[in-house]
Design a protein that fits this description.
Blueprint (H helix, E strand, L loop, with lengths): L5 H11 L2 H8 L6 E2 L20 E9 L5 E6 L7 E8 L9 E10 L9 E8 L5 E7 L1 E3 L3 E7 L13 E12 L2 E3 L5 E11 L4 H16 L3 H18 L18 E2 H17 L4 H16 L5 E2 L2 E2 L2 E2 L12 E2 H17 L4 H12 L2 H4 L9 E3 L3 E2 L10 H9 L33 H9 L5 E2 L5 H18 L16 E2 L6 E2 L13 H5 L6 H15 L4 E2 L2 E2 L3 E2 L4 E2 L5 H16 L1 H6 L3 H9 L3 E2 L8 H7 L3
Helix pairs in contact: 2-3, 4-5, 4-15, 5-6, 5-7, 5-15, 6-8, 7-8, 7-10, 10-11, 10-17, 11-15
Length: 620
């Protein structure tokens, strides 16, 4: 990524002051660190297949890129996953603490009928019995031949007891929309190395972020919110590829791009230009490059839809992901916002072109609702967008399409369950983001259809989310001090669609979830923001603002940022401040025509569920 310009770094310099110099001198240049000897020096007999049926042998026929012998892995042919397990001492793992990533070289023969496309690294402690430590998925760079798989070990994996004994597990498998398929043909492993040294003086890094937190807490509410927005925007500027505009799914070094993050990023550019964080010329240039990437076919897609995850450099499909209908909708919403902001330009033309290219009718499969996705291996996914959730935005775009519109009556067939108290239409799992995403772009403050005022509906969901947290504050540490925000996020055991239903939360909250409720429950959102900063400081505030999630109950704090979370924060803050994104998108004729066709009219009350629909649901 490019270096930050002086102007864009100014806010952080003001916040950090003299602490910055200490951090800069504490960073080591990138280098490689050996994890263990070459395969020819390792006792192959110590390796285990972890009951997967795999066998292992030293190979001099296939040599590593460095010219050394490789480990031939021959799958058993029956297990869904081919596994390699081997013992390693805690002392040997001490080096992990100084590095962010582990790189594994893998040779996948092009002649193989089926190769691995998913790679997992796990760790267990076996000092006294067997205890799972943690595991992470790797990100592959390449599809066949010699590829590199990058793993980012978690904090738990980088904190091995030097006197302990451990087992590392590598799992290799092929997975598509239908599930996992057993591997049957041999592949080869080359060197294993540690990459990307982390900040050597972590106390200096923590001091830097704590200094920012202290400055933030001294601000009044308006200044605090503006500073959060400004730090959040930097994600979309620095975690993007300036050559093609693709935005990382998350802030890890080897993350692929997420097309949804790109959509949020396009809208972020308009906010940044409006606020003066970057010049309009810079915003325009980045938006243009981004839209050209998709309009030219550089980004992989079909029928106007694009793959959920794509390579940051090549634009190729990643992780056997699907052509995603909802993520394409988020991309198109961002594109249209950029087109509206830069009206009458090539950006506007390309945004319109991308919108017109989306064949919503194809994605319905000739049925009543839009499919969630499609893959070349398995065709359309079985699930459809047939009930209340974030697909509200998708249907507005699909019904308003100038080229492949869906009939407006499809909107009436959407299932809309109402909670037991009749307060609002809800998704049973209650992840907060499903209420927020559509309203990040759509201004529904004074409008209702036959079923709901969706602005009030989101307000009720925010209130409910906070109530659930507050009700457990006596027993769950995370929910104390007014902290809340239960939604899909990272967690102690990986990513999960957390929500404010009884069995769907474990003390994990996502700072984005409460922050993005600013337009709906401003006092409660601000209370949570300040409480997070006050009680957790640098544990919740890093390079691009709030981290993705925390769970104080188990003393777990993410140190990552996720693109769609950052976008939710940024757009909702802009709407809270002055309705910026709402007003921008309200100028789009196709969206307004769609809302009219869907039956949206001026709201008649402060309810969430319309009286007529509530009576229908309750059988009155």
């Amino acid at each position: 990524m490019q270096k930050k310009s002086w102007s864009l770094a100014l806010l952080r310099i003001v916040l950090v002051g003299a602490v910055c110099s200490a951090v800069l001198f504490g960073v080591r240049a990138q280098e490689h660190g050996a994890l263990w000897p070459a395969w020819e020096n390792k006792d192959i007999a110590s390796l285990s297949d972890d009951n997967s049926g795999a066998t292992f042998a030293l190979s001099t026929e296939v040599l590593s890129p460095a010219g050394s012998a490789t480990l031939q892995v021959t799958p058993g042919g029956a297990a869904d996953e081919t596994k390699l397990a081997f013992p390693v001492s805690g002392a040997a793992l001490q080096e992990w603490a100084a590095y962010e990533q582990l790189q594994l070289e893998v040779y996948l023969p092009e002649s193989n009928t089926l190769n691995a496309n998913r790679f997992f690294l796990g760790m267990a402690q076996v000092t006294d019995g067997w205890a799972w430590v943690d595991g992470v998925f790797g990100q592959a760079q390449g599809e066949d031949g010699w590829i590199q798989v990058l793993y980012t070990p978690s904090a738990a994996m980088r904190s091995a007891d030097p006197d302990g004994d451990y087992v590392l597990y590598f799992a290799f498998f092929n997975e598509n929309a239908q599930g996992k398929s057993p591997l049957t043909e041999a592949f080869y492993l080359g060197s294993i190395a540690l990459l990307t040294p982390i900040v050597a003086d972590t106390s200096a890094a923590d001091s830097r972020y704590q200094a920012e937190v202290d400055t933030l807490l001294a601000m009044d509410d308006a200044a605090l919110i503006e500073a959060v927005a400004r730090a959040t925007f930097d994600y979309f500027w620095y975690e993007a590829n300036p050559e093609n505009g693709l935005v990382k799914d998350r802030s890890t070094a080897a993350s692929p791009a997420s097309i949804a993050a790109v959509g949020f990023g396009l809208s972020a550019l308009t906010i940044a230009a409006d606020r003066g964080w970057i010049s309009a010329d810079l915003a325009y240039e980045r938006a243009l490059v981004t839209l050209q990437t998709f309009a030219s076919g550089f980004a992989a897609g079909e029928n106007g839809f694009f793959y959920h995850f794509i390579d940051m450099q090549s634009g190729e499909r990643m992780w056997a992901s699907e052509l995603s209908s909802i993520d394409t909708a988020l991309l198109i919403a961002g594109a249209l916002s950029a087109g509206q902001y830069f009206a009458g330009t090539e950006v506007a033309q390309l945004a319109q072109q991308l919108y017109e290219n989306v064949d919503w009718q194809w994605m319905t499969r000739g049925r009543d609702h839009v499919a969630m996705g499609w893959t070349p291996e398995g065709g359309f996914l079985g699930a459809s967008w047939d009930h209340f959730d974030e697909s509200l935005l998708l249907y507005v775009l699909a019904i308003g399409s100038p080229t492949y519109p869906l009939a407006a009556d499809i909107w009436a067939s959407w299932r809309r369950p109402v909670n037991v108290r009749g307060e609002y239409i809800y998704l049973p799992g209650e992840p907060l983001f499903v209420y927020q995403y559509p309203l990040a772009w759509l201004d529904l403050r004074s409008r209702e259809d036959a079923y709901a005022n969706y602005f009030n509906n989101t307000t009720r969901a925010c209130q409910r989310n906070r109530q659930v947290s507050a009700a457990s504050a006596d027993t769950v540490a995370t929910y104390q001090y007014g902290v809340w925000g239960i939604s899909a996020s990272d967690g102690p055991n990986g990513y999960r669609a957390y929500g404010a239903s009884d069995a769907n939360h474990d003390g994990t909250i996502a700072p984005y979830a409460a922050t993005a409720c600013l337009p709906f429950t401003p006092a409660a959102a601000l209370e949570s923001m300040r409480a997070l900063l006050t009680h957790y400081g640098a544990q919740v505030w890093r390079e691009y603002g709030f981290v993705s999630a925390i769970n104080a109950q188990v003393n777990w704090f993410s140190d990552e940022h996720i693109g769609i979370d950052q976008g939710d924060i940024l757009l909702m803050i802009a709407n809270y401040q002055d309705g910026f994104m709402w007003e921008l998108m309200a100028q789009n004729t196709y969206i307004q025509n769609a809302l009219t066709a869907m039956g949206f009219v001026e709201s008649r009350g402060d309810y969430a569920v319309t009286p007529a629909y509530l009576a229908q649901v309750q059988g009155r």
